[in-house]
Amino acid sequence: MEHIHHHSEESHTHHHEACDGHCHKHGEAGHHHHEHNQTGQLCRIGITIVLLIAAVIIEKHCELPTWQLLLIYLIPYLFIGFNTLKEAAEGLLHGDALNEHFLMSVATIGALCIGFLPGAETQFPEAVFVMLFFQIGEFFESYAEGKSRDSIAHLMDIRPDSANVERDGEVVTLKPEEVSVGEIIIVRPGERIPLDGVILEGVSSLNTVALTGESIPREVGVGDEVFSSCVNLSGVIRMRTTKNFGESTASKIIELVENAKERKSKSETFITRFARIYTPVVVFAAVVLALLPPLFSGHFATAFPVWLYRSLLFLVVSCPCALVISVPLTFFGGIGGASRNGILIKGANHIDTLSKIRTVVFDKTGTLTHGQFAVEAVHPEKLDEEQLLHLAAHVEHFSTHPIGAALRDAFPNEATDGCSVTDVEEIAGQGVRARVGDKTVCVGNAKMMETAGIKWHDCHLVGTIVHVAVDGEYTGHIVINDRIKEDSAESVTLLKKLGVNRIVMLTGDREEVGRNVAEKLQISEYYAGLMPADKVKHIERLQGEKHDKGAVAFVGDGINDAPVLARADVGIAMGGLGSDAAIEAADVVLMNDKPSKIALAIRMARRTLRIAWQNVWFAIGVKVAVLILAAFGLATLWMAVFADVGVTVLAVMNAMRALKCRM
What we know:
The chain is an alpha+beta fold. The protein is 51% helix and 18% strand.
């Protein structure tokens, strides 16, 4: 219970590290184990309520001696409080005695003991109620934390399975781990590049989305450096390896995620800091109250029972039920309210960090843009726009390339207009040539135009320029781009209004593409041509440059973003179309892929934190007032009940306000 139980933070850390080490093997088992624990906890709470009601009925209708009543109430008390008492005992053994488990144990045991003092009323139901409320708070916090996540299981999909290696004049298939640096490997179309290396022969297009997150295929040829996990889309390439498998780009991505989780910042929340002061002060004050006044009274034997009663009453009042229940409920309400708006926050601890965000770093493709090609502009010269799109879509009819899909989407009726397409020839690294009706049409890049001896000209727009020539004559070009999301500009504006003073864009795309998107969205700071490791370095640099207590958030969507999402103070993933690995590695997931929801998440986090603070100060204020009265013997049982149960009920009612969303 990270927000409340500071002593268990270390054990929680070890638990998660253990899970991370085995999650790719036992993720499903861990999932069921977590659900089983929650179900068991809920069953214990339900059974305890039944046992407590039965004990109260027995006390009301049967006149039993105090010690027999104690035995009856001990059944629900030990049933629900065993784990708390165990935690308190372990804290004593490990030198961490003054934690909230110890305080809860002493206070409830004190409430049980009060009934044996001369003239005192039994407080057995109160002791069970306090322990029961404490466990309800534990249940809510556990539920809000959600199921444990396996942050690297889906990354295993980018690992290449085999490599075709030239050895002794033959091509043999080996595991990537068995290939040495400097060996020659063959990568056929549709295969994943197994190791980093340099191309010796062949030209092709590479799908680099696993590394860069960019949807634009990369054209490569002799002398170009290529990276593991990229998919070869067209031609056969022959390459020489430059790194072994352990040093390859795919392995580095997985390693970055594992290391980033260990280096995640562990800033403590206000409840943890408060508990470290509150708990020892209360225990010390109770001990002083029980011993010091009788020592100075001159009649220790007579005065001690009176002051012991006051000190135990002091401990009963000081039980932090209002904090233990209402604060987790506040965060839980904030999480529930956010989920109604398509924002999944993975644990109450992230709300505290979300509220402190002062720097937001965006990945470009799939985050600020749709991550899908679309025709942005058509510039015909000899034909009109419809004719140019018509011919280009027909030529790309059989192409699996994303550019072909964008051209077909721009002219959706090409498949039903009756035109014949023959002699289709895909030229690796250049484009496609085909006969549409009685015309020879070339659709491709500038290299294709130059190879065919066709005079062409560039475009003033930034993007992928597809040139079209008919029967050797240039007829115009089509601009294809990754479209900016409709609410990306709104997202940047809203973040600035919230006081986010630094907005940065990181992208693996080309410099001119990155600059174009940054200018359209009024983002003054951007970095292009980045690999995953470069993005991690930028996040670490930005975290080091913080001059205030603000947090750094990273927003991404691809597998390549998983290490950065894990390294940032808050990782925010696009969940609608984002990769599974990014969703698992992130702290916050936007289920509808709208970047404008980031501002809403920050606003809700800040509101949740304000409500939590209200509960803290209200609970402390009432308790301090009653504690002072108890110290002077002016507090009554009803005051103690109000300071404990009454304040808890009011704080919980206030906490439920966090469920309401303010758009």
